[in-house]
Amino acid sequence: TTMVVFQNAGSIGIKPKRYTIEWIEATRERERQENTNPVSRYLDRRRSERGGIWQAQYNLPWHPYWIWMHDSHDHDFPEYYRPSPGHPHLRYTDKLDTPFVRE
C-alpha cells in the first residue's frame, strides 16, 4: 500500500486541461447539441418524480483531480468561461434549447 501512495503522490497539483471549467462546459455543450444519453435523463427525471432520492452521479466527484481543479481555467476558450465549476454532465433539469456558450 505504501507503493500505491508514493506512485499516486506524483499527481498532486497536476491540472489536466480536460478537467478545466471551460472544458467541462464545452463537453456539456457538445452533449446538448448531440442530445446524448436522453434515456438516462428520462430515468433520472422519473426517479426524482417518485420522491426524494440521492443520486450519486450528481454529488460525488467524477475524476481524481477534483481537489485541485476548483479554480482552474483554460484561457483558450473564453466563450465557455464560468467563475466556478458546475456539474460535469447534463442533468435532467437542464434546458436543451439554450446553449451554454457565453458571448
Could you outline the blueprint of secondary structure elements for this entry?
Elements lengths: L1 H8 L11 H14 L3 H12 L6 H4 L44
Describe this protein with a few key phrases:
mainly alpha, 103 residues, 4 helices
pLDDT averaged residue by residue: 77
* Biggest sheet details: none
Percent of residues in helices: 25-40%
Total strands: 0
Strand content: under 5%
Strand-pairing-aware structural class = mainly alpha
**SSE string, helix = H, strand = E?**
HHHH
Verbal overview:
The protein is mainly alpha-helical and 103 residues long. It is 37% helix and 0% strand. The protein has four helices and no strands. The chain has helices at residues 2-9, 21-34, 38-49, 56-59.
Short description:
With about 100 residues, the protein is mainly alpha-helical. Helix content is about 35%, strand content about 0%.
